[in-house]
Amino acid sequence: MNQARRPLIAGNWKMNHGAASGVQLASDVARTTAAFGSVDVVVAPPFSALWKVADALQGSRVELSAQNMHPKASGAFTGEVAPGMLLEIGCKWVILGHSERRAMFGESDAVVAEKVKAAMDAGIRPIVCVGETLDERERGDTLNVVKRQLNAFLSIIADKPGFAAIAYEPVWAIGTGKVATTAEAQEVHAMIRASLAAIGPAMAEKTRILYGGSLSPKNADGLLREPDIDGGLIGGASLKAEDFSKVAETAQKIAGQRLVSRPLVSS
Ligand code: PEP
Q1: 10, 33, 202, 249: least surrounded by Cβ within 10 Å?
Q2: Phi and psi angles of residue 218, each rounded to the nearest 5 degrees, phi first
């Protein structure tokens, strides 16, 4: 992590927790992360729980995210939810291009880009996911695949440096307990940072790049100390407030140590 960017810890609940248990979990997250003022904390419940969870988070520092959205503003799209509908219930963020949506729901790079544009236009902050499959990694294609995914949307998020976040999530690490090594993750994060720098210094300095894939209290310290890892997108470990808040606590601790080791220069 780098002190120029506030750490961001986001929980992707996937298809877990309805409104009743979601309100409980969100309230526990708000309480257990309240003291971590250097860290931005986000939770992404399923659509059906968003309204009640938004209420439960009122007055807390925890921000609300959706897990997906349709790019159009309204119309005949049965089963879909529009950007304006998410804004209306208090979503500040939306996760886009998650590998489960790419693999199971056929979302191409072009579809992800269309959604990213719709989110940016609506004023919802996208967390855009990229990452290679095990096959692609074993073929030595990791950097090419992630570059291709990035290139589909980088120019779209360049309009507002720092507004969007990018999550590097190696598909083989999601929900498997097989976490990327710090070196494997940092290599890809550094490539993403260099791609952002090619657009301009503000993009590189302000855009948070999260790691996702079996991130937990056990491995967070090593990963979050890498210079280009600015936080985490967490699935399994976000379903227990205690585990999730321990990762946020780790981010808070590292952010504090960075400030002490590199104090701000006063003139
Ligand atoms: C995710 O689905 O975004 C994710 C990172 O899941 P997990 O933490 O369970 O690997």
Answers
A1: 202
A2: -75, -35
Active site residue 169: yes
Q: Residues lining ligand 1, judged by CB closer than 6 Å? A: 12, 169, 174-175, 212-215, 233-237
Each residue's pLDDT tens digit in the chain (267 positions)?
766 799 999 999 999 999 999 999 999 999 999 999 999 999 999 999 999 999 999 999 999 999 999 999 999 999 999 999 999 999 999 999 999 999 999 999 999 999 999 999 999 999 999 999 999 999 999 999 999 999 999 999 999 999 999 999 999 999 999 999 999 999 999 999 999 999 999 999 999 999 999 999 999 999 999 999 999 999 999 999 999 999 999 999 999 987 666 554 443
Residue 98 known to be catalytic: yes
Which one is catalytic: 169, 189, 226, 249? 169
3-state helix, strand, coil in the chain (%, to 5): 50, 15, 40
Q: Write phi, then psi, for 8 (nearest 5 degrees).
A: -125, 120
Distance of CA 203 to the CA centre of its chain: 16
Atom of ligand 1 nearest to the CA of 236: 9
